Amino acid sequence: MSDALRALFRRAHGQLPPAPQHGVESFYALGHELDVVCDGTACHFAGGPGIDPQLPRVRCVGHCYEAPSRLTGPSVATGNGHPALLKNLASTPVVLRHLLTDSRGEADHDDLPSGDDILAVIEGVGLRGRGGAAYPTAAKWKVAKAQPSAEKWVVANGDEGDPGSWIDRLLLERSPHAVLAGMRACGRAIGANRGVVYIRGEYPRARAAVEAALAEERFDDMRIHVVGGHGSYVVGEETALLNAIEGQRGEPRPKPPYPAVSGLFGKPTVVQNVETLSIIPHIVRANSGASHKAICVAGAVREPACVEVTLGTPLRRVLNEACGGPREGSRWTMALVGGPLGRVIPAAAFDVELAYDALPGLGHGGVVVFDASVSPGALFRHLAEFARSESCGSCTPCRVGSARIADMRDTPSLDRLLTTMEMGSLCGFGQGVPRPIRDLVELCGERVLG
Ligand SMILES: Cc1cc2nc3c(=O)[nH]c(=O)nc-3n(C[C@H](O)[C@H](O)[C@H](O)COP(=O)(O)O)c2cc1C
Ligand code: SF4
Q1: Exposed, middle or buried, 143 (CB in 10 Å: 0-12/13-18/19+)?
Q2: What CATH number does domain 293-448 carry, 1.10.10.60, 3.10.20.600, 3.30.1490.10, 3.40.50.2300?
Q3: Is residue 133 in contact with ligand 1, taking CB distance under 6 Å?
Q4: Where are the domains of the chain?
Q5: DSSP-based helix, strand, coil % in the chain, nearest 5
Q6: Is residue 417 within 6 Å of ligand 1 at its C-beta?
Q7: What percent of the chain has a predicted confidence (pLDDT) above 90?
Q8: Ligand nearest to the CA of 424
Q9: Per-residue confidence at 174, pLDDT binned at 50, 70, 90?
Q10: From the CB of 395, is ligand 2 less than 6 Å away?
Q11: pLDDT in tens, 215-264
């Protein structure tokens, strides 16, 4: 945390005594050592934890395409050496445009229109957030803009917790200027002059790249801080993220109030995903591009890749045209789409369109494809273990429910447990955990349990 943010934190909360300080520190999983093996979905099934069973496990390090991977030290991720391929199935690249051309995106800062014009374009194109909830961006901005506060914040959500997604890491590492330009455009639209880029601790190179970009740029209109994470999936939820930035336990806050009304340090705040922010400058300039989405594909395909598509593109087309079809000698059985709170799609349904309405649960667009080497029961146990170990524990339906999924031996009991979680959980984690598990049981029956 920067000194300026630390000072703000003290202003809001005072100096923490030792016991609550311990409470904060014990919430997070990552220590200062970054020697960890990845146990995210692609790495888990590629034998990741077996690389060194003594090392702590994290989910995930954002190198799913070269599973299994291990993060060693502040800057090196080692995996099987498969490169981070970028493919474009859309007309002209929007999400990947700087990554494909190796340009830094500095032109994005030029000639930003007025705040009202920016807001009108974002509303006109109907941009929806890419972080998972697919919420209309302009609706959030309008609420923040309407708040009578001299202090407002823009927060870039670079937590990218979903195992199976790595686009935010690529954008932060290779195109940080575009993300910063998106933050400035948002700030101008809502009247904010302060910003935070929150970057997960598992992405040390991303943090270094953003800090270098900030050192290169001088903004008169916005002061931007960088805050690093310490290991927690739930901190990606926007209100938990705000608590984490404030130096508190990364537990979600009850909503309302929504962050646009009362967010960071109680001030109106817009939290926006990194991919969303990175495409905003282009959308503002071109008045188009809001239907482009990055889809990351790993697992049982020949060429794992990050693929830019137009929303509505069938999953099968992405897997065949961009990722080379099934891995040699294998036949697809199913895919986990949208991470561990997403959907399990059987291979027979791969014609499904990748779009928010056609596929609720598309989330951040991570896809891990499976063949017969991964049994449905193994995927069930993986999802149940993810839920158990990542639940933040602050509300009972999710704390108890997540811990008990793996113990369920029949579908009526599992159904009751999942319904309680869906209806009673405080945040999208407990509400979303049941989704892929229900898909799996529907697809494969009770044999996945136990
Ligand atoms: C458990 C949980 C984890 C989340 N993790 C992330 C994340 O890693 N990155 C992200 O951008 N949004 C994440 N979200 C969604 C955020 O709460 C929020 O909707 C998003 O950052 C808003 O930005 P967007 O509108 O640009 O998507 C998560 C939500 C939940 C419930
Ligand atoms: S639903 Fe789960 S992750 Fe969300 S607040 Fe409750 S315990 Fe924490």
Answers
A1: middle
A2: 3.10.20.600
A3: yes
A4: 31-83, 92-286, 293-448
A5: 45, 15, 40
A6: no
A7: 80
A8: 2
A9: very high
A10: yes
A11: 998 788 899 999 998 888 999 999 999 999 998 999 999 999 999 999 99
Q: How would residue 12 be classed by pLDDT, with cut points 50, 70 and 90?
A: low
92-286 CATH choice from 3.30.559.70, 3.40.50.11540, 3.40.30.10, 3.90.650.10 = 3.40.50.11540
pLDDT at 176: 96
Q: 229 CA distance to ligand 1 centroid (A)?
A: 14
Ligand with the closest atom to the CA of 161: 1
**CA distance readout (Å), 29 to 25, 61, 135, 207, 236:** 9, 14, 29, 18, 14
Ligand 1 centroid – CA 145 distance (Å): 21
Cβ(279) to ligand 2 under 6 A? no
Question: Per-residue pLDDT for 147 more than 60?
Answer: yes
**CA–CA gap between residue 40 and residue 49 (Å, rounded):** 9
Pairing mode of beta strands 305-310, 292-299: antiparallel
- 316 Cβ contact partners less than 8 Å away, ≥ 6 residues apart: 350, 351
pLDDT at residue 195, as a whole number: 97
The residue written with tokens 């984490």 in the block is 244
Of ligand 1's listed atoms, the one at least distance from the Cα of 131 is 27
- How would you classify the pairing of strands 194-199 and 153-158? parallel
Instruction: Give per-residue burial for 77-115: e unless 16+ CB within 10 Å, then b.
Output: bebeebebebbbebeebbbbbbbeeeeebeebbeebeeb
Cα(435) to centroid of ligand 2, in Å? 15
Kind and range of the H or E run holding 241: helix 238-245
The residue whose CA has the least distance to atom 1 of ligand 1 is: 429
- Per-residue pLDDT tens digits for 45-75: 999 888 888 888 998 899 999 999 998 876 6
- Tell me the per-residue pLDDT of 347-401, one tens digit each, with 9 for 90 and over: 999 999 999 999 999 999 999 999 999 999 999 999 999 999 999 999 999 999 9
- Same CATH fold assignment for domains 92-286 and 293-448: no
| Phi, then psi, of 372 in degrees rounded to 5 | -65, -10
Ligand nearest to the CA of 127: 1
- For the CA of 238, the closest atom of ligand 1 is 17
Q: Which ligand lies nearest to the CA atom of residue 427 in the structure?
A: 2
| Token pair for 93 | 């690249």
Ligand 1 center–CA 50 separation, angstroms: 30
